[in-house]
Amino acid sequence: xxxxxxxxxxxRAEIGALxxxxxxxxxxxxxxxxxxxxxxxxxxxxxxxxxxxLAALIAQATRTxxxxxxxxxxxxxxxxxxxxxxxxxxxxxxxxxxPGPTPETPVTPPLYTLGEVYRFxxxxxxxGWLFSRVETTPVWETxxxxxxxxxx
Length: 152
What we know:
The chain has 152 residues and is α+β, with helices and mostly antiparallel strands. The chain contains two helices and six strands, in the order H-E-E-H-E-E-E-E. The chain has a six-stranded mixed β-sheet with strand order 2-1-6-5-4-3, with helices on one face. Strand 3 and strand 4 form a beta hairpin. The longest helix is centred in the N-terminal third of the chain and has 26 residues. The protein is elongated and about 60 Å long.
């Protein structure tokens, strides 16, 4: 294996790990960790709206992933196309939304499930790869879409 092939494998693994980390951050509600995933000028276009800049991304994630509900992100088929110090990424996403637990029902059934395609732009920075853009395209949904919290 050449050094170039090895470097490309490492880049793909690092970008794939960013995709996985994003799913965990959204599932767990640890939105401050988005600063280790996105550039400060990153943009997002999702069913939750458009966000320009890291602070707006964090605010949008906080609004759309409120603690009053449980959400799991299942991300698969991650494809990374490298272009030197930039990359294009495509992945499939299934997000399952359930109401938060209560003392009577600690585990609740899902009320809404969404299938989407994730598209990211990634850039190599001095500290590693980060996403500079995310856009989701809904493909299918089932159930009742949750009402979003008021903007903060």
